[in-house]
Amino acid sequence: MSWVDIGALDDIPAQGARVVKTATGCVAVFRTLDDQVFALDDRCPHKGGPLSEGIVHGASVACPLHNWVFDMSTGEAKGADVGQVTTYPARIENGRVLLDATRLTTRSAA
Amino acid sequence: MAQKLVVIGAGMASGRALEHLFEEAPGTYEVTLFNAEPRGNYNRIMLSPVLSGEKTYDDIVTHDDTWYAEQGVTCRFGEKVVSIDRAAKVVHGEQGDVAYDKLIIATGSTPFIIPMPGHDLKGVLAYRDLEDTNAMVAAAAKPGARAVVIGGGLLGLEAAAGLKLRGMDVTVVHIMGHLMERQLDPSAGYLLKKALEDRGITVLCEANSEQILGEDGHVRALRLKDGTELPCDILVMAVGIRPSTKLAAEAGLAVGRGIHVDDGMVTSDPDILALGECVEHNGQIFGLVAPLYDQAKVLAKTLLGEDAAYVAREVSTKLKVTGCDLFSAGDFAEGEGREDIVFRDPGRGVYKRLILEGNKLIGAVMYGDTADSNWFFGLIKDGTDVSDMRDTLIFGPGFQGGASSDPLAAVAALPLDAEICGCNGVCKGKIVEAIQAGATTLDAIKATTKASASCGTCTGLVEQVMAVTMGDAFVMPTVQPMCKCTDHTHEDVRRLIKSQQLKSMPAVMQELGWKTPDGCPSCRPALNYYLLADWPLEYKDDRQSRFVNERNHANIQKDGTYSVVPRMWGGVTTPAELRAIADAADKYNVPMVKMTGGQRIDLLGVKKEDLPAMWADLNAAGMVSGHAYTKGLRTVKTCVGTEFCRFGTQDSTGLGIKLEKMLWGSWAPHKLKLAVTGCPRNCAEATCKDIGIVCVDSGYQIGVAGAAGMDLKETELLCTVATEDEVMEIVAAFTQLYRENARYLHRVYKWVAKVGLDWCKAQVVDDLANRKALAERFELSQSVYRTDPWAEHAKPSERAKWAPIADITKEAAE
Predict the structure, then answer these.
(1) A105 and B811: CB-CB below 8 Å?
(2) Quick one: pLDDT at residue B570?
(3) Which residues of A touch B559 (CB under 8 A)?
C-alpha cells in the first residue's frame, strides 16, 4: 500500500463529500456525521450519477440522479436495486485524509 | 359503446355505488360526476375526528384525483346542477349541459336551520361538510373563544366535544329532556351528560332557543326563552337534516319527504335512480351510513340490469367521542309486553339496559362499557331466542358457557357470521377469509373487505379478529409515517416542531425519537425546510440536508454538468445583461443556450468547478440567481400590460417585478411560480400558476392553486382587489400561509385541496389582522433569505470548495 495525502478532513463537509481527480476518473471521498471517511468511484452504476453530490446519511449515500442508495463501506446498492460501486481504502491520520494510491492507479486495469 | 351515466352528488353513497359499478363491470358506463362541494368523495362521518384534531382531511379522503382519473370519471366538482330535463335526458350544470342515458341523484341532505331571528348572521354554522368543519377549527383558534351548539343529538355532541378539544368554551343547548333521546333512554342520557360536563362542556336540557343576537352582522349570543343569554363567537346548529329533493321535485319526480324510490332504487322515472340521504323508501328516510351502503350495492346491480332489492335492516349507533363509550340498537321504548334487564355500576359510570319482548332481545342501550355490544346486536338482528340465558344475559357472552372475559377470547368465540363492521355489513368470516387470502395489514383488510373503512369505530375489533386469526404474525399498525426513520407523520412533526420549540435537526431527532442517527434523504430535506420556515431567525439552513440542486444553486443534468439561470425580474432584460450572458456562455463553453418557460435564459452544460466564476461574472453585470432549482419562488411571468399593449388594463409588468422583488429567495414546501397578466386574454398564462394575477379594469383578480405539470388545473379565485398594495400584501400573506402549513413537496394546489380554499380566504382575505400578521412573518423570514446565494458562493474564499480536493492524475500516471 502507498498512502497519499489528499487533504485535510476539515476540507470535507460532515455529511458531505469532495472529489479527487485521478487519471481514470473521479473518486468521491465522503465524510460521515461521526467523522468516518469512505472513498468510492464517483459514478453510480445505474446512470453514471456523481455520488459525491448525494445526501450522506449514516454510512450510506443516495445518488442525486435517481436516489439509488449505497452502503459506503461495501459499495453495494441497498434495497431493491442491484449494483456495486468500487471502494478504495481510506483513513484519517492527524486530521489528514489518506487514500491508497496503489489501488487508485491500478484500478483501470481491472 | 359505453352508456352515459351522470351522477349528481359525490358523497359516500354515490361513491360506494360507483365502486361497485366499476368493480363489477368496468367500462360499461362513461361517468360524469357533479359535486357542489369543490372536491370529491370523503368520509363525511369522520369529520368529527378532523374537528377534534385527531385526524386530518387527508386521512378521510376516500377517492382522490387519481382514483377518479383511473376510472375515467369526468369530475365537475364545485359546480352545481341547475336542472334536469327529463324529456331531452340532459342535465343542465352551471357550466354546461351533459346528456345522460342513466342518471343517479345523490344530492344527500341539507342541515336544518331553525328559522329563528338571527339565523343568517355570520358565525352561525351547520355541521355538515368540510367547510363547516374548517370554519369551526378557525373559530377555535382564537384564545378564549366560545361556542354554543344547538342540538344534543349525535352530530351536535360530536361537534361540542371536538370544539372543546380545540380549546373552546362550549355550551350545548338541547330542547328535549335528555341527550340523544332518539338513541338513548334517560338514564344513559344522564350518564352521557355527566361525562360531557366532566370534560367542561356545559349542557342545558329542556332549553328553548328564542333568538340569535348579533353585532355588526356577526353572532354575539343565543337568547333562550327564559331570558338567559349565552355569549358566543360561533353558534353551531345541529338539529337534524332534511333530504335534498329540490332538483328532483323540480324535474317532476315523485317526491315525499325524500325522493321516492322502489326496491331497485329507481325513481318514478325509469332512467333516473337515486340513493342516500335524499331518498325515501317505504316511507323511511336515512341518516346513517350502513343502509346507504346497502342501497349502493342494490343501485349498482340495477344499473347492470341485475335483479336486486333493498331491504331495510337494523342499525346501531355509536358516538364518535373519544372516551365516551356508548352504544344503542333496536327499539328501547317501554311498552306492553316488553321487559327490561338493567345493570348499573354508578362507581364506574356503567349502565346497560336490554329490552326483551317475548323470548327475544329487541333493543340494547349501553353506556360506559360497550365491549359486548356486537354480541347483543347480533342477538337483536338474528331474533335469537334468549330464554335459556336470560339469567346472565346482561353480563354478556363471557357468561354464556363459561368463556373467559378476555376480549380476544370473546372475539375468538364469535361465530363467523357475527357482524364486525356495521357500516359496511362485514362479518367475521369475511375478514378471516381475506386474511387467509393474504390481506395481513389493516389497510389490506380495509381495501379488500371495507371493514372499518367508514366510521372506524370497529377498527379495534377488526384488529382483534386479525390478532386471533394471525396469532403472533399480527403487529398493531400505525399511521403512515414521514419515512422509515420515524413513526411520526409529516403533520405531527410540523406540529411538534412548533409546539415543543424544536429549533435544530438534532433536537427534532432526539426529542421525537428518530430511529436513525442522522435521518435519510427523505426526511432531512423536509426537516430542514420545516425548521427554517418556522424559526427563520434561529435556525441555520443545512446545506448537507439539501438535494444537489439546492445545495449547488444550479440544476444538475444527466451528465453531471449544471444549468445556470440568472434572474430576469418579471421577464424583463436589457442589452447589457444579454451581452453579459453571451459573454459568459462563450467564456465557459456553454454547449446550449435556451429560453425557459419562465421568461429567462438557461445556460446548460456548465462544469461544477466553473460555477462560482461564472456567477461572479453574472453578478458583476448586476444579475443574481434565478433560483430555477429551488423549492421556493421561481419566477413571476408577465405580459407587457399598459406599458405597451393596446389591451392592457394595468401595469402587469411593473407589478410582476415588484412581486418578484418581494418574494425572491424565499423557500417553500415546493416550487412556487407566479404570473401577472395585463388583461383577461391571459398572455402571461396566469391561470395555471400557483398564484396568478389577472388584471382587469377595476383592479386585480388573484387566483391560486393552478397547476400545469403532472396535473393540469385552472386557478381558483382567492379574491379581487382594487390596488397593487393589496395584491402585494395578500400574495405575501398567502405565500406565508402556504409556507407555514403545507407538507413538504406539496404544491399549492395540493395543499389548497387539503385545507380548502375557503379556509385560505378566511385567513388572508377576510381576517385583515391575520393577513397583516402573516405578511409580517413573511417579511421577517425574508430579512434573512432575500439574498443572492451565488454572490455568497462566488467569494474568492469559497471557490476552492467547488473544485476537486486533490488531483493525483500524476501519481496515477507513474
Answers:
(1) yes
(2) 96
(3) 48
By CA distance, what is B810's nearest residue in A?
A: A23
- Using a CB–CB cutoff of 8 Å, tell me whether A35 touches chain B: no
> Residue A108 has what pLDDT?
46
Per-residue model confidence (pLDDT) at position B320: 66
Cα(A81)–Cα(A70) distance, integer angstroms = 9
Amino acid sitting at position B411: V
Does residue A109 register a pLDDT over 50? no
Selection from B698, B685, B635, B695 nearest residue B661 by Cα: B635
Inter-chain contact B809–A55, Cβ cutoff 8 Å? no
- Tens-place pLDDT, residues B193-222: 888 888 899 999 989 999 999 999 999 999
What does DSSP assign to residue B271?
T
pTM for the full predicted model: 0.53
B218-224 and B229-231: which strand pairing?
antiparallel
Neighbouring residues of B574: CB distance < 8 A, sequence distance ≥ 6 = none
Q: Which domains does chain A have, with CATH numbers?
A: 3-105 (2.102.10.10)
In this complex, the residue of A13, A16, A55 whose CB is nearest that of residue B521 is A55
Q: Is B813 on the interface with A (CB under 8 A)?
A: yes
What is the rounded distance in angstroms from the CA atom of residue B589 to the CA atom of residue B20?
A: 61
Over residues B620-634, mean pLDDT: 97
User: Average pLDDT of chain B?
Assistant: 90
DSSP letter for B719, please.
Answer: E
- The ipTM assigned to this model is 0.93
Q: In terms of Cα–Cα distance, which of B175, B240, B160 is closest to B207?
A: B175
Residues in chain A: 110
C-alpha cell at B669: 414546501
Closest residue on chain A to B525 (Cα): A55
B490, B482 in Cβ contact below 8 A? yes
Q: Using a CB-CB distance cutoff of 8 angstroms, which residues of chain A are in contact with residue B611?
A: none
